[in-house]
Design brief:
By secondary structure, this protein is mainly alpha-helical. It is 49% helix and 10% strand. The chain has 4 domains: 146 residues, HUPs (Rossmann fold, 3-Layer(aba) Sandwich); 148 residues, HUPs (Rossmann fold), CATH 3.40.50.620; 52 residues; 100 residues, Arc Repressor Mutant, subunit A, CATH 1.10.10.350. The strands form 4 sheets. A 3-stranded parallel β-sheet has the order 1-2-3, covered by helices on one side. Strands 4-5-8 form a 3-stranded antiparallel β-sheet. Helix 12 crosses helix 13 and helix 12 packs across helix 14. It binds glutamic acid. Glutamic acid binds next to loops.
């Protein structure tokens, strides 16, 4: 078999939404899995609705997801002469014809046919008239009046259409611009596309496209029409189901591999495995396991997967991804503790990078704000002596190491008779302001003596003041 060639042909009329990204992923994965090629094509013939901003947004989203292409980007708007040459070919072979029926005439015929309960397809007025090209003429494809056209779909099985119900459809408008169904086929032929995976909202277009392949004597591609992604109310996914654009997930602190994993699983399966790395998806992706039923977009499940991918990600890579979120929180990352070390304390706890940036707050804050309830409960005169001792021992220790810190705590425990928990919790509040945080030794190691000692001093002063106030 020839090498697999797939494509992603977005219409640049808006951002890349999660449904579109899933289609791109299926095609990209299949090409990568089979050692084939993946083509990017911008379907921008609808000049009124296509914008450069949307093209840029699509590139940005694909780049973030790590979907790379081998060929393109092609722009349909720059390929009009190619479409024209194929139109000329069909006209010369009598497989297409000029039609001058006006929109008003067509609308009127349609109304009448509807009222009479008759077929509303084009009635073929111009089909045998042999009209020449005129400025207001469109080109129609001559659909065989009888017979059927069948899609052999790898997802849905065979789907058969009566040709009579398809009718003679327009392939080129009077301004010379081809219609979607025509441009897409000419592109797919000339770009060597042999596998097309797309949303099943295109099923009704496919017989028209197959007829064009057949008229041109070209081999058909493999088709796979996947069910659309649905919202939780089982209607087509839309804005009201939450964020739609791929980059919105980036901005909310999702990892690209988590979104990829989630979207692919929303229409493809491999046993009951849920977590896949990008490499595993490439290795295991297959057309056979594309699902027949619609996937329901579940933000909670995506969040859970993101958590798992954060846990599994290399801290050094996370550092680069987390930095903009920290900067957004207003932290000077380079003035803070070592970022990779910070991440190593948080990557089993935070569900998104945005959460992680918030959870990292105490590492960057100059003066820790004590949570009042935590302070009331743990920063009490009873632990004053222990905290002073700890401060003195830490000063003696100098540079921090896990072993050294442990030794210091053991010494303080021995001298005070306190158990570790009794000391650790006040220290936690002193260092983070809160009662929940990563392990106390880890935090201290990351913060280092230059941050830990002033924070301990402040907690000690806080308790002293409290004790003084209570004495009065
Ligand atoms: N531009 C079309 C779309 O975005 C492409 C459809 C196709 O895959 O043929 O829906």
């Amino acid at each position: 078999m020839d090498p697999v060639v797939t494509r992603f042909p977005p219409s640049p009329t808006g951002y890349l939404h999660v449904g579109g990204a899933r289609t791109a992923l299926f095609n990209w994965l299949y090409a990568r899995h089979s050692g084939g090629r993946f083509v990017l094509r911008i379907e921008d013939t609808d000049t009124a609705r296509s914008t450069q901003a949307a093209v840029d947004a699509i590139f940005e989203a694909l780049e973030w997801l790590g979907i790379d292409w081998d060929d393109g980007p092609y722009y349909q708007s720059r390929r009009l002469d190619i479409y024209q040459s194929y139109i000329d070919r069909l006209l010369a072979a009598g497989q297409a014809y000029y039609c001058t029926c006006t929109p008003e005439e067509l609308a009127e015929k349609r109304q009448k046919a509807l009222a009479a309960g008759l077929d509303v397809r084009y009635d073929g007025t111009c089909r045998e008239r042999g009209l020449p090209r005129t400025p207001d003429a469109v080109v129609r494809f001559k659909t065989p009046p009888d017979g059927t056209t069948t899609i052999h779909d790898v997802v849905k099985g065979d789907i058969t259409f009566e040709n009579r119900e398809i009718g003679d459809f327009v392939i080129q408008r009077s301004d010379g611009v081809p219609t979607y169904n025509f441009a897409v086929v000419i592109d797919d032929i000339t770009m060597g596309i042999n596998t097309i995976i797309r949303g099943d909202d295109h099923v009704s277009n496919t017989p028209k496209q197959i007829l064009i392949y057949q008229a041109l004597g070209e081999e058909l591609p493999v088709y796979g029409h996947v069910p659309m992604v649905l919202g939780q109310d089982r209607t087509k996914l839309s804005k009201r189901h939450g964020a739609m654009s791929v980059t919105a997930y980036r901005d909310m602190g999702y990892l690209p591999e988590a979104l990829i994993n989630y979207l692919v699983r929303l229409g493809w399966s491999c046993g009951d495995q849920e977590f896949f790395t990008r490499e595993e998806l490439i290795e295991k992706f297959s057309l056979e396991n594309l699902g027949k039923s619609a996937g329901v977009f579940d933000p909670e499940k995506l969040l859970a997967l993101n958590f798992d991918h954060i846990k599994a990600a290399d801290p050094a890579r996370l550092a680069g991804l987390l930095r903009p979120f920290l900067e957004q929180e207003g932290y000077d990352v380079d003035a803070g503790p070592d970022l990779e070390k910070i991440i190593a304390t948080l990557n089993q706890r935070s569900k998104t990078l945005k959460d992680m940036a918030r959870d990292a707050a105490f590492y960057y804050q100059g003066e820790i704000e004590f949570d009042p309830a935590a302070a009331k409960k743990f920063l009490r005169p009873a632990v004053l002596e222990a905290l002073r001792l700890l401060r003195d021992e830490l000063q003696r220790l100098g540079e921090f190491s896990e072993k050294g810190l442990e030794g210091v705590f053991v010494a303080v425990m021995e001298k005070t008779g306190f158990k570790l928990g009794k000391i650790a919790q006040p220290v936690r509040v002193a260092l983070t302001g809160k009662t929940a945080s990563p392990g106390i030794f880890e935090i201290m190691d990351v913060l280092g003596p230059q941050r830990v000692l002033p924070r301990l001093e402040r907690a000690i002063a806080f308790i002293e003041q409290r004790a003084a106030a209570a004495d009065k």
